[in-house]
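Researcher: I've been going back and forth with a colleague about how diguanylate cyclase might be arranged in three dimensions. Neither of us has a model we trust, so I'd like an independent prediction. The organism is Roseateles oligotrophus, in case that matters for your notes. Sequence below.
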Amino acid sequence: MLGLKPLHPRYLLAIAAGSVMVLLSGSLWIGPAAEPGLATVALLGAGTMLLLGGLALRRAWLETASAKRTLEEAIEALPASVEIFDESDRLVAFNRHLLEIYPHMSTDFKRGVRFEELVRKSIAQGGVPAAKGCEEEWLAQRLAARAASRKSPAEPLLQNVHEGRWVRIHERHTRAGGIIGVRMDVSDLIHEQQRLAASKAHLQAFVRTTPNGVLTLDVDGHVLALNPAAEALFGFAANELVGSHIDLLFGIWMGARLSPQALVASPQEMTARHRDGQEMTLLLSVAEVKTETAHSFVCIITDLSERKRQEVALQEANAQLAKQSITDGLTGVGNRRYFDQLLQQEWQRSARHGHPLACIMVDIDHFKLYNDRYGHVAGDECLIRVAELLRACAGRSGEAVCRYGGEEFVLLLADCDLAGAQVVAQRCLDSIRLAAIEHEASPLRRKLSLSLGVAACVASPQGDAVSLVEHADAALYAAKQNGRARLVCSEQAA
Ligand SMILES: Nc1nc2c(ncn2[C@@H]2O[C@H](COP(=O)(O)OP(=O)(O)OP(=O)(O)O)[C@@H](O)[C@H]2O)c(=O)[nH]1
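Model: Here is an independent structure prediction for diguanylate cyclase. You can compare it with whatever you and your colleague have in mind.
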């Protein structure tokens, strides 16, 4: 596509014919005036010179043509689009890649056409999306930049052409004043950059808005960057933490200097401290990022402090609930459900170890009269008082006081035989007597008194725990029958 052609052989023939003509006419003209031999030699010499000159000219043209062909092939073989403009900015040569980049201009690339004209046509056919709506202004800037580049080499231009293709244009001025332009199709590169920019923007949006703290660390554990959630979590501004070692946040609690490599494992719960000194429980997940050019660690931090607080509160609530479910609401001692569970439990234990188990049934004497005399609320207070006294009498480990129902209580004494239970029962009687609670309606010295039935046994695996209670209850009945304010020990082993 270069614009020069070799000299055609017919021109050389014309030169030769002209030489012969000159030779003949010269000999005719000189003939009469000069010595014929000398004139003929002179003319023959001149003709020969002309002929030789023509042959040399032909060889030069042939060499030029060959050089141009080589150049043409070289330009064509280049992987980029190449165009050459002369000093008047007219197209002199170009290769087929130019047509591939601008297929809509395939008929416009002709030798001799001016650069400005080509750009105008390309703009008109939508080949320069950036120029849309400001065609003249864009063209003027492009031409000005091209002219300015004559003085100093310009930076490569990145231009979006049709169908989302991108070309990088390098233009260099030749010494003769022309311009050589090289256009490289960098669409793949630009599209990759665009994809990367999009995913980077997504990632940044996520990191900015996630409620999780995100820290990046270098291989030695120094903070490279952190997100707003991490700033809020630790109470430090990003510029205060960047460059610091993560020991500042975690290490003080670990005892040893932390290494990010050691943290790359399954998420682990760690204790850290907020700037204000408050301790936090955090879940830390660390991932290693290793590429050809980068090596760092990304830490995702979840604040578990609130969840921990809620867990503790829930545990406490559950424990409270569990306690309430086995506690008598009025007196605070164990309720009937608790007693039934405990009885089974202790019965099994007694059966296993062969240790005795004792039960004391306690009933307030003439409590109906107490209620009648002092009212139900006072009756409640009286029940609370009696429960306190009983608890004080049977408060060691293995001893339990429960409300059996109404004004009746029951004491279960693990590892305690009848004699031991009798001692406890007597302590209860004494305690109530010493408390001297007014009971004006009671025929028994006008003081509150208790009746107690005591039973004990070594449980047998086949036996029924309830039999122990029944014996204690029978003993209580006997105490009531025998005048109240006393204890009776069951004579029967359960
Ligand atoms: N204030 C109050 N009274 C209760 C409660 N539970 C049961 N009582 C009362 O306790 C009394 C029990 O009466 P009784 O079973 O006749 O027995 P008692 O009057 O103590 O006579 P003895 O047991 O034979 O000495 C009833 O009046 C019930 O109303 C309670 O939670 N609070």
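Researcher: What would you highlight for our discussion?
Model: I'd start with this: Residues 330, 363-368, 371, 376, 379-380, 383, 406-407, 480, 484 surround guanosine-5'-triphosphate (CB under 6 Å). After that, consider the following. Confidence is low (pLDDT under 50) at residues 2-6.
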